[in-house]
Give the backbone structure.
Amino acid sequence: MTKQTALLLGFILLKFVLQYSLISPDYDLQRDEFLHLDQAHHLAWGYLSVPPLTSWISLLIYGLGNSVFWVKFFPALFGALTIVVVWKTIKELKGSLLALILGATSILFSCLLRLNTLFQPNSLDVLCWTTFYFILIKYINTEKIKWLLIGAFVFAYGFLNKYNIVFLLIGLVPAVLLTQQRKIFIEPKFHVAFVFGLLLIAPNVLWQLDNDFPVIHHLKELADTQLVHVDRVGFLKSQLLFFIGSILVIVSGWIALMIYKPFENYKFFFWSLIFTLFVFIYLRAKDYYAIGLYPIYIAFGSVFLAEKLKEGKKRYLLLILIGIPILSFIPLYKVAFPNQSPKYIVAHSKFYEDLGLLRWEDGKNHALPQDFADMLGWKELAIKVDSVCATMPDLEHTLILCDNYGQAGAINYYSRNKKVNANSFNADYIDWIVLDKKIKDVILVKEEGDRDKERKIEKPFFDTIYLASKRINVYALEREISIYVLKGAKIDINKRIKAEIEKKKNYK
């Protein structure tokens, strides 16, 4: 084993150790993770929320036992592979050993530690962006068609994971057109690779077409409810914070693309960063959408700085640059990750409040950071629902209906009763409601904001309605969740549910 290989394996091992140490066992999974895990039981070529690839990984997780260990393993794996790709990129750019260490350290101690804690498409998205850029460098250096075909595969893989990778092309194409590399667009081998990529994503595109493009509905809803509130200045500030410990490396790499002769063939990467960020800013994109942009510039910057600072006292500056990401991680360790218990955070609330970490989207300060609070109370909810289900005489003809996908997914994940299957009209669950048996009773799971405490809407349709249980967790995002039992249906509940589904599916 070479010294370089041993070092790379060391970085990979450290990555996994860190990822598993950054989440306290006091926390449950996060609501999006439940949704993605449930997709394993409803395989399709597309979903309202995401493309299909996440469901394939969920199926693999399910086959491995569906434990929290495996749920957290895959985002950590994608983060580790991002380090590997940056490492390979630096080697392709003829970087030294110190360049490799600088690049790997910059990626390891970055926002990816936070991103890779959750099982969401974002971790794989960053890996696909980074890998696609690496493949492009390989093609420029060799001009072999195999790299174009591999690039098409990586892009398609990224597309089937998260549509965000389309912005990679939106920023890259005009950048390439500005440089001598524009010749690639008229080469037959590029057209072959282009068609190959289209064939790979065709099943998902056809699914979108067959379902009247729910992604458009999803994007419009996102724009109306979330993106409209995105602050463009805040977006730019976040870009500086994502890789705060390696910002000098990124900027150096970006500038080097214009002034460093060995990078002359890659000059389009200079413009690509500008074009891609401009599009994100114009569309008021969420700040984390752009994270996949930066690892490749860390590779360029690491090679450039290691070359310029390799001699004499300058070498100490390079060692300082390697140390900065590590030093910047230390103060973030206790506040930026859910590795402290809720009680600890409450006991040290002044510290968190001064950093603005307790302010939620409602503009008010709460006991915990909002994203930490969204990882609490789910297991308790499943236990409460299981206890209510145990009182039901005919569970096979009972519908469990939740207010949102977080509740439904959490119940399905944590429930010990194999007969329990929670549903919702929210997100992808609206397509998964199975009405193959006549519904006689309903267990209704309602969040705190529900105003109909007396169930006036449902009373005319059932013989008996009562509040069976409550899940109260003062630290959870959904502080109070009520569980109602609706027994003895007086009407055809199946027919009413079907009508409600059609009403909710306003994207068609």
Q: What stands out?
A: The mean pLDDT is 90.
